[in-house]
Amino acid sequence: MAKNYFYDITVVGAGAAALAAVWGCVKEAKIALVTGNPAKNSTYFAQGGIAIATGKDDSPKLHVEDTLEAGRYINNKRAVEILATEGIKRVLQLDRYYPFLDRDNGIIKLTKEGGHRKARVAHAKGDRTGKFLRESLIKVITKEKNITLFHSQVESILADEKGVAGVITDRGEKIISRAVILATGGIGALFKKRTSPNNLQGTLYSQITKLGGNLSDMEFVQFHPTALNIKSATRLPLISEAVRGEGAIIVNAKEKPINVKHPMRHLAPRDVLARTIWEYESKGEKLFLDARKIKTFPTRFPFIYALLRKFGIDPSKDLIPITSSVHYHMGGIETDEEGKTNIPGLWVVGEAAATGVHGANRLGSNSLLECLVFGFRAGKSVNTHIYNETSSKIKPTYIKEKQNRHDIRYIREEISNSAGLIRDKETLLKAIEKLKRKYRSFYNLPPQAFTIYSVLLAALLREESRGAHFRKDYTEENDKFKTRSHLNLKKLKEWWNNL
Ligand SMILES: Cc1cc2nc3c(=O)[nH]c(=O)nc-3n(C[C@H](O)[C@H](O)[C@H](O)COP(=O)(O)OP(=O)(O)OC[C@H]3O[C@@H](n4cnc5c(N)ncnc54)[C@H](O)[C@@H]3O)c2cc1C
Prior knowledge:
Blueprint: E1 3-6, E2 9-12, H1 16-24, E3 30-34, H2 42-45, E4 50-51, H3 60-70, H4 77-97, E5 103-104, E6 107-108, E7 110-111, E8 121-122, H5 129-144, E9 146-150, E10 154-160, E11 163-169, E12 173-176, E13 179-182, H6 205-210, E14 215-216, E15 221-228, H7 241-245, E16 249-252, H8 270-282, E17 287-290, H9 297-300, H10 302-310, E18 320-329, E19 332-334, E20 346-348, E21 353-354, H11 367-383, H12 407-415, H13 425-439, H14 447-461, E22 486-487, H15 489-498
Parallel strand pairs: 1-12, 2-3, 2-13, 3-9, 13-20, 19-21
Antiparallel strand pairs: 4-8, 5-6, 7-8, 10-11, 11-12, 14-19, 14-22, 15-18, 16-17, 17-18
Helix pairs in contact: 1-5, 1-11, 3-4, 4-11, 13-14
The structure holds flavin-adenine dinucleotide.
């Protein structure tokens, strides 16, 4: 028997986006913060940093230009401008309240990352930016806000005729509120080779689509070029791009630098480098990061250093084995620049959202920034919505989604690779056919299978290569597709029936 709880706002997640959203909410609001395992989020693992154009020779305008270039010009330009300008304000505000950024004589230290023409990546304790950013956010919100923490997994979204009306958790809690902010992270755990935690599987996309929400840019799955290449791990540990920003290069087993066809070479955007790595690997070559010239490695990257030592690698002497790996999802649930979806009462922020800020490819260190900026904006936006109705008067209609936890293995082993780094019509179609054979009807798709189907379909429909989406049967960008992609329930169902 479900127990009812009544709140003004329900926030789902415990990464940077969820916490920033809580930060944006008014202090009078009664907030339910619902999160599966609070330690399992990408934010905690974020190493390299957070991009802010505060350097002497830098400006938000240059940051915008680099973000658009990496996103291959299908970004939502307004969202990018907000990111680059409001981002500085938000990061400095948080750092003023609870300092977390590394400084040198009071000046914020900045480093370079792939695709950034200027050094603009601020960081915390060298390579623990996510952890310390998160801690600062937790300090701010626990001091200022009225929060109840639920250690539960959200299984269903509640709705009534007015829109979203709360959530139901795996522990039978029925949390009723007129506003829900989802910050459930990316979909990396649908893939076998990934850097993200196991619980990020896009399990709520199916329900949101069935409630009338839209998905955007689902085909754009980012691969990181330098994950640590070790066989035993389920999640590949990351070797931050900032290591290359400090001078490391990618070499083959004979210590020869790889040939990168891009003016920024070993700091080229992630899609370019990840594909270059794939080309070498498909010829049987093993690749490595050569960081031996970085004399300050143990102090500049203490977390990565400790990790490498655990695997018996000494970066001052040894080459570091690397491979490319799924890392980030540019797509997700479509929102405006306030995090608002087209479903009344539902906001989505962080990696789960598709504001269009990243376009076809995210620039490194723009994600934590996105979480802070758009999370905070969503919190502010919710404030105007919550006092219209007392939550105890809401009578939600229960929506039950079938959960099938065993399918994740099947999706990782048999399906998601077809939506990998190199795609083509034949492999994408084959993967969709397999899903159709296994599940028969569209409505039988378990949540994770639904999400990967939407990635496969969006990848199939984009008959060009752009940013992170590379089709070997359409290797060039095509102006006909110079726009974001959109999927809704009708389109997803029609293609399922007609393919
Ligand atoms: C190894 C690694 C390094 C990275 N380094 C950087 C970096 O240096 N700079 C940068 O900008 N970005 C980096 N990124 C990307 C960035 O960390 C993420 O995009 C960002 O942290 C996402 O934040 P989020 O709040 O949206 O989601 P997350 O931080 O992933 O949090 C999602 C939360 O939702 C919860 N959740 C999910 N589903 C449910 C459910 N059904 N019910 C309840 N709770 C649920 C999870 O438990 C989790 O707490 C990195 C990512 C990884 C994996």
